[in-house]
Amino acid sequence: MSLYSPQALVAVLCWIPIVFYIFMRFPPQRAIIISFISAWLFLPILRYHLPGIPALTKMSATCYSILFATIIYDATRITSFKGSWLDLPMLIWCICPFVSSIANGLGPYDGFTAVVEQTMAWGVPYFLGRIYLNSLSGLRQLAVGIFMGGLIYIPFCLIEIRISPQLHHIVYGYHAREDFGQTIRSGGYRPTVFMEHGLMVGAWIMAASLIGVWLWRSKSIKQLWNFHIRWLVVALLVTMVLVKSMGALILLGVGIVILLIAVQLRNAFPLLLLILSILVHLFLAVNGNFIGDQMAISLSQGVPEERIASLKFRLDNEVILSAKAREKMIFGWGGWGRSRVYDEWGKDISVTDSLWIIVFGGNGLVGLVSLTATLLLPIIIFSQRYPARSWLDPKLAPAAAIAVLLTLYTIDCLLNAMPNPVYTLASGGIVGVSIKEPVVRSKKVFLSKF
């Protein structure tokens, strides 16, 4: 199998001028949302290494082209940017690979390359979210875009549920993932469409479903494409079950419950409690105090045995990987697989499934704390600036749904390593909204300027 078929490379390269056309056709705010979501949903999975610059992927091509398009068509937006203390975690996260490389003797060139790659993957989407989605109206457009993206993916998911995951192979000439066995679940198929793994599809449908439920509940949108939103949400929820992603289904339930209880209690305590549980888990995991066996036992009732075995396998690997990471606690081991565990013959005996252990092993506590703060700190500030009693207001509801969604994404990062730049874009938007002072009118919280 050729990992990079000609049509896949052509599709990614052609995407660059298409992004410029999108910027000419739509307002910049909408153009960014269309570009990111379309690339994530439909471009091929590849990693094409070019001399002297970071690898070309569908999202790096999108980030490069959007950044250049912004410079050409909307440069004043960049020059007028004003930073905030909430931007520091992302800044540290982007530059910490350089320090990790120097600390491990890998040299400044390796460090610089790692910084560029990390900045394109995380910093650029965040920055674009900061300058374009820094208002409630901007986050509303993003929320609607995610919702529409989920709806558009429904027929593709249904096709692959019926015929098996073949669309990536049909269109681009190769399967995105060689391990086809992971697409088989419960006597059927788990769709991957144009993503690397079925879990990514499940997470995307979960995100669209959560946003759809809250847009419906808050009456932010009543109709879309001449369909009542009720039926569109039902279609997403049915698809959510059919894609056979139990973890995503659980996260969807947690997200809906948190939003409903927070509004009922008129405070964000349920969301903050969830964030606290994430931090406690990370604290225990970093210090080697895993509760993997207890977790597996507690889930043994009502959960398929193979799922319990899979979870226990992941947690057992994190035990040995975290022990290796603690040998270089502050800045980690850097790149080139140095954070992995090898036997006496040099064979890699570790499996890295979760993003947190990859970050902890590669960039140490500095990387892990900065990334966690990037994802969770803006949500905490948002929940204080915009009280939960207002989360059902049609103007605020989309932003509240995205804040909860980012928390669920952070939970997913505890188990999986599937970074999604759309969430990083959303994180930048949440920061932009959170640093603005809301005004109070008739006991409801609004931004003075939408």
From TrEMBL:
Coiled coil: none
UniProt keyword Membrane present: yes
TM region(s), chain numbering: 6-24, 31-50, 56-73, 142-163, 199-217, 229-262, 268-286, 355-381, 396-415
Protein name listed in UniProt: O-antigen ligase domain-containing protein
Keywords tagged on the record: Ligase, Membrane, Transmembrane, Transmembrane helix
Gene Ontology molecular functions: ligase activity
